[in-house]
Specification:
Elements lengths: L2 H5 L5 H4 L3 H24 L3 H13 L6 H20 L4 H10 L1
Helix pairs in contact: 3-4, 4-5
């Protein structure tokens, strides 16, 4: 074993044991699960959580299907409408007013 070999970390054993085809299949399944979790969050009325699941895919560099780009637009709109109609936190406002 040469110096270069010793300095190179061992690849993740789980990834090393997968063939490229199996690795791709696992990745596709993970993406499908993540999109499903985003849909489930939106269905239970939590667009913020849905958008967080979408950010998981964006963080790893996956491109969203066009249908999910449209869903993101709707979820962002729902989130902004929820913030616009949410009652003000009167206790928080009172603390901020007292501090100034």
């Amino acid at each position: 074993m040469g110096i270069a070999d010793a300095a190179t970390p061992n690849p993740d054993p789980a990834r090393r044991s997968l063939s490229p085809r199996a690795s791709d299949a696992k990745h596709r399944q993970a993406v499908a699960n993540t999109l499903r979790w985003a849909d489930e969050a939106a269905q239970r009325g939590d667009p913020a959580d849905a958008l967080m699941w979408i950010e998981v895919l964006r963080a790893i560099g996956d491109r969203l299907p066009a249908a999910y780009e449209r869903k993101c637009t709707r979820w962002k709109l729902a989130l902004s409408q929820a913030h616009a109609t949410a009652p003000a936190d009167s206790e928080g406002l009172a603390r901020r007013s007292a501090a100034t």
